[in-house]
Design goal:
257 residues; alpha/beta; Rossmann fold; 7-stranded parallel sheet; 8 helices
Amino acid sequence: MLKSLQGKTIIVTGGSRGIGRGIAKRFGEAGLNVLVVSRSLVDAEKVAEEIGGNASGFAADVSDEAGCKAMAAAAEERYGGIDVLCANAGIFPAAKLWDMTPQEFDTVISTNLRSSFLSVSAVLPAMTRAGSGRIILTSSITGPITGYPGWSHYGASKAGQLGFMRTAAIELAPRGITVNAVMPGNIFTEGLDGIGGDYIAKMEASIPMKRLGTVADIANAALFFASEEANYVTGQTIVVDGGQVLPESLGALEAMA
């Protein structure tokens, strides 16, 4: 049983949909004050309303330094401090290398990787004053472990997050701040609505547990990293993928039958 996190404050970037929405709602259920951050204030406030309690929405472009500073200031003004940051904002537009433009590459790196740095930098003053803090990055198995055609820029950004995490964890440890990452596999979100049962079945066939993950699976891993029980864990990753990265080939899964 995890010790209560009730009354603490979390910022969730990219919190209006998908995994971010699931994380925001799970932390709200755990009794935290939740600042849901999205580029759209309407979308952020909608999720905050779903959470209820001490949740609120905030609009910011977290690839922009001023936006991140405003986000951190809002959390301190509304809730008196910042205990947890979940740097979850990310995009994954598909583009093969022969079609990808430098602008498309830069946009993904800026949204996924630069935003992690800027979000962390923005919350550091509050966490340093408190003498403690939890930073949780939403990375991916794609990039650090696997690859997928069309996602070279996405994979680079997610691998980069882990390189950033390891040095940040060393630098921030003396301040009582931990930095860890959750690495999702294939997770069912609203983004998969309408793709068809056949496509989902093919995805599930490559996973030993024979199902896609849920946003709750990712949120629960993030909740552990935020807990008091994880106060001696830093610079680490949890892969949440139903065993997807384990088989050496599809033949290994067929041999299970």
